[in-house]
UniProtKB/TrEMBL annotation:
This is NAD(P)/FAD-dependent oxidoreductase. Pfam families: FMO-like. Keywords: FAD, Flavoprotein, Monooxygenase, NADP, Oxidoreductase. It comes from Pseudoroseomonas ludipueritiae. It comes from the Bacteria. Belongs to the FAD-binding monooxygenase family. Its cofactor is FAD.
Length: 547
């Protein structure tokens, strides 16, 4: 372990004094929450982090091609002007290691490591009603107590390895993209099988194909993707961004997705086909997430969405030389951007390589993993390495893994047996003093995450500050408020095309047996932040607070 890592690996005492707050996770959310409570409210806070360093999801995400799909200048903290001025991003879309360097820089700048306990995985957190405290137990057997428990575990941090018969018999190496080894994996001369063509698989495939002797991509669902057009950020661009940061951040807080850009106030159906195609072409050439902001109704109007979907389908057919392969890669079972919309660097071009094969597992399902590879209905594929780009048990998985138990020993898993039920994505009825940063029922994964994280951290910090000022020790979401919010989350989702993508992990569809519930809040980041502020103005309406 280097000096740039933990100063606290284990608690000194088995039964420590009561902390004001325990934060679980040291990614974007955990670092900012620590800074806000410790340095602004002067609270006694400890962060528990499973990894050896800061980074959260990005500590584990090290797979080939891993990089952010939001542009670097706004995928970053806005709370410190000094931080914004001091840090320079090198690329339009930063690679995983640059994001970790950034978070290391943040941790050092604000002296956060001294309050972070690394190499510590939480095995259970239980609320003690008599004491009004959370009792947190780690896998190493340490027990800690705190007034507040704040989860900053990320929405995409619980890796999903599909239960395919025979995996234990495989003689080669296998990896999951969300738990990639810290040392490089050498694909040179290897026969590689990549399972999954979501955002991660789309990033990994081109990089693996360049090194491997042969890459076989096992695709369940064909996906839309827009070119990233990644490039270096020039000195002039960096200077301009820093000069404009105030307006950039202000704009991001007013938009649906927390990006510093918004679609023009025009429907795709208001233009002629020629004008519409010209706009799509310009957006395609620019690349990135702005493509879905070409028009203002792509996610609410089927006709408009069909124009965007068909534009991308036509691009796929024009890029991929083999018509049969192109047809397999062309999505037909969902609308564009109703699943997480990937951006890529030469993904579709990868299937023009002689050393790449595409297997449609809907047409030829995977039957088992054998000692020598993967056997599908059509035969066996000989492999040396298997890469699972099969995503995560999103949003609820990381929280349920903590074995959180509230009043009366109620397990969060039981409370959410039919799907997550929260108030504002911030609290759960029956679990006093538990805050969930970017929890289910908040905009979270539908947004530029740092914007959603900062809004949640600042709301939680303001709430705790208000409680301390009033001499209050306990806060819990009212069950009626939870029911009302769950209904509103469903209503907001139904106003969009998002729930129509039946294979989406937004619905938990990638996890066998998981309740099919649309989990994030689709009403927009700006609208959501306004609701949260209104709740505060009404004396924390929907929360029960007591001394």
């Amino acid at each position: 372990m280097t000096s740039a890592q933990a100063t606290l690996e284990r608690p000194v005492a088995r039964d420590s004094a009561v902390l004001d707050a325990i934060i679980v996770g040291a990614g974007f959310a955990g670092l900012y929450q620590l800074h806000s409570l410790r340095d602004k409210l002067e609270m006694n806070v400890r962060v528990l982090e499973a990894g050896e360093g800061v980074g959260g999801t990005w500590y584990w995400n090290r797979y080939p091609g891993a990089r952010c799909d939001s542009e670097s200048y706004y995928y970053s903290f806005s709370f410190s002007d000094e931080l914004q001025k001091e840090w320079d991003w090198s690329e339009r879309y930063p690679k995983h290691f640059e994001i970790r360097r950034y978070l290391d820089f943040v941790a050092d700048k604000f002296d956060l490591r001294r309050s972070i306990q690394f190499n510590t995985r939480v095995s259970q957190a239980a609320f003690d009603e008599a004491e009004g405290l959370w009792q947190v137990t780690t896998e190493a057997g340490e027990r800690l107590r705190s007034r507040f428990l704040i989860t900053a575990v990320g929405c995409l941090s619980s890796a999903n390895v599909p239960r395919i018969p025979g995996l234990e018999s495989f003689k080669g190496q296998w990896y999951h993209t969300g738990r990639w080894p810290h040392e490089d994996v050498d694909f040179t001369g290897k026969r590689v099988g990549l399972i999954g063509t979501g955002s991660t698989g789309i990033q990994a495939a081109p990089v693996i194909a360049e090194a491997a002797a042969h890459l076989t991509v096992f695709q369940r669902t064909a996906n839309y993707s827009v070119p990233a057009r990644n490039c270096a950020v020039s000195l002039e661009e960096r200077q301009q961004i820093k000069a404009d940061y105030a307006s950039i951040r202000a704009m991001a807080r007013t938009t649906t997705n927390g990006y510093p850009f918004a679609p023009p106030p025009i429907s795709a159906m208001e233009l002629s086909e020629e004008e519409r195609l010209a706009r799509y072409e310009a957006a395609w050439e620019r690349g990135g997430m702005r493509f879905r902001a070409t028009f203002n109704d792509i996610l609410t109007n089927k006709e408009s969405n069909n124009t965007a979907s068909e534009f991308i389908r036509a691009k796929i057919r024009s890029i991929v030389k083999d018509p049969e392969v192109a047809e397999k890669l062309t999505p037909k079972d969902h609308h564009f951007a109703t699943k997480r919309p990937p951006i890529d660097s030469h993904y579709f071009e990868t299937f023009n390589r002689d050393n790449v094969t595409l297997v449609d597992v809907k047409a030829s399902p995977i039957l088992e993993i054998t000692p020598d590879g993967i056997r599908t209905q059509d035969g066996e594929h000989q492999l040396d390495i298997i890469v699972f780009a099969t995503g995560f048990d999103a949003m609820t998985g990381p929280l349920l893994a903590l074995d959180i138990r509230g009043r009366g020993g109620l397990a969060l898993k039981e409370a959410w047996a039919e799907g997550p039920r929260t108030y504002l994505g911030l609290q759960v009825a029956g679990f006093p003093n538990l805050f969930t940063i970017t929890g289910p029922g908040s905009p979270s994964v539908l947004t530029n995450m740092p914007v959603a994280i900062e809004q949640h951290v600042e709301w939680i910090t303001g709430c705790i500050a208000d409680m301390r000022q009033r001499g209050l020790n306990r806060i819990e979401a009212d069950p009626a408020a939870v029911e009302g919010w769950v209904a509103h989350v469903n209503e907001a989702a139904s106003a969009t095309l998002l729930p129509l993508a039946e294979s989406s992990w937004y619905l938990g569809a990638n996890i066998p047996g998981k309740p099919r519930v649309f989990m994030p809040y689709a009403g927009g980041m700006a609208r959501y932040a306004g609701i949260c502020q209104e709740v505060v103005q009404k004396g924390y309406e929907g929360f029960n607070r007591s001394a």
